[in-house]
Amino acid sequence: MNRHHTTVFMLAGLAALAVTLVLVWCPPALCRALNIHTFTLFDLSDFRQYVEDEPAFLSAHHTRAVRIDCASLRDEVVTALRTGRLALGADNVPRSEGEQGRIEAWHQGRLLHLTNTGLPTNGDQQAWAASVRVTIARQQGRELAFLSRLFGGLVLHVAHKQIPFVLFSDRPCF
Q1: Cα-based distances in Å from 60 to 26, 52, 63
Q2: pLDDT tens per residue, range 24-37
Q3: For residue 145, what are the CA distances in angstroms to 45, 138, 140, 170?
Q4: Of residues 69, 97, 60, the one with CA closest to residue 82
Q5: Of 21, 66, 134, 148, which has the fewest beta carbons less than 10 angstroms from its beta carbon?
């Protein structure tokens, strides 16, 4: 082997070693870009676990990076609110089949809209809106923290009025 072949062989070996090291100890941003060791979140329960304890989630799923399907998660939140699987405010008890039409929810991008059509009086609607606001404010760092990651704002539609509520997150989902 002459000197030129030895140099090329050594450079190829170093390149193979570098690629192997990147694949094994891939930084999360690079893994996400290359789609290596990446887990895609599109299920609300998985996303809630991820938001509650990111390092434990990554360890449990043997992954280095996470891709978040924000649109499908927002749709799932709306469905969960409509069916009673996710409750806000004083309405913390899952509803039966006959009562499922009470909470109306929809979203426009990162803006979540809610109204409670099952309350007969304006006073009841105002009380419901106040309980939702208090619940979200208290839970911002705990169980409902995922809402601020998915939505930048909440609008409560009560008695022909709209009550806006801003949700802050240092890592919003776009």
Answers
A1: 17, 13, 8
A2: 667 767 777 776 77
A3: 13, 10, 5, 11
A4: 97
A5: 21
